[in-house]
Amino acid sequence: MLAVFEKTVAKCPEELQSPHSAEPVCALKDGFLASHFDSVHPNSVTVNLGSSGIFVYSLAKQNPLLPRLFAVVDDIFCLFQGHIENLAFLKQQYGLGKATNEAIIVIEAYRSLRDRGPYPADKVVRDFQGKFAFILFDGSNKTVFVAADEEGSVPFFWGSDGEGHLVLSDDSEIAKKGCVKSHAPFPKGCYFTSSGGLTSYEHPRNELKAVPRVDSSGELCGATFKVDAEAKKDRTGMPRVGSSQNWSGHL
Fold it and tell me: Which residues pair with 169 in a beta bridge?
């Protein structure tokens, strides 16, 4: 799977951007990275998100233990890979039918947060028990929501292309093609949103610190992110349930 988002929709962390990236690439220009993805994964599907970016995925050659799913509900798009073990519990919690799959669950969980749900984002993601990585885009308010499980069970990478656009993929070679030296594995047990940046859902009150990443050739290549046990985030107030404020800015 692949997603590329325009930098005004999802700002890539500066620490991922390597100054040593030669020949910077624009992943969105002339459909460059989507075309490359299709050459590697023939018969892939491209979903054009207009000026916001693209989704590209293939249902061929899947790992049966980590299946790939795509869903759209009310202009909310979700690419999901893996499985959620407590799916039956979450269906009941969100009042969904038996045919509901993991991608739909993620969309409904996101909608509950966006529409002034009673739980913080870290609690909602922590409720997903299983092996997973997902990419969600809300077309109504141009919001990106991304997460991976705490074990890093699904190969998942992110980075910045030469224009500062955010690139996400389960294929390291695709990420490297689009980002050159400015990519790294997506941090385990973390989620990323357009408004809130990167957060550990296991330790949501702690800051994350970037650690420069060195590739197999000994060159700097993006960064990994670790929980800083000593640094706490400033507490920010959350609007109460039923307030007139939209919670999407607090995800």
Answer: 2, 157
User: In this predicted model, what pLDDT tens digit does every residue of 171-215 receive, in sequence order?
Assistant: 999 999 999 889 999 999 999 999 889 999 999 999 999 998 887
**193 touches 143 (CB < 8 A):** yes
User: Cα–Cα distance between 126 and 200 in angstroms, integer?
Assistant: 10
Give the chain's domain count. 1
Task: Give first-to-last CA distance, the chain, whole Å.
Answer: 24
Average pLDDT, stretch 122-131? 94
DSSP string, the chain: -EEEE-TTTSPPPGGG--TT--S---SSGGGHHHHHHHHHSTT-EEEE-GGGEEEEE--SS--TTS-EEEEEETTEEEEEEEEETTHHHHHHHTT--TT--HHHHHHHHHHHHHTT-SS-HHHHHHT--EEEEEEEEETTTTEEEEEE-TT--S--EEEE-TT--EEEES-HHHHHHHHTTSEEEPPTTEEEETTTEEEESSSTTEEEEEEEEE-TTS-EEEEEEEEEEEEEPPP---PPTT-SS-GGGG-
Q: What is the CATH number of the domain that holds 78?
A: 3.60.20.10
pTM given for the model = 0.89
Q: Give the domain extent around 25.
A: 2-250
Q: Are 193 and 25 spatial neighbours (Cβ–Cβ below 8 Å)?
A: no
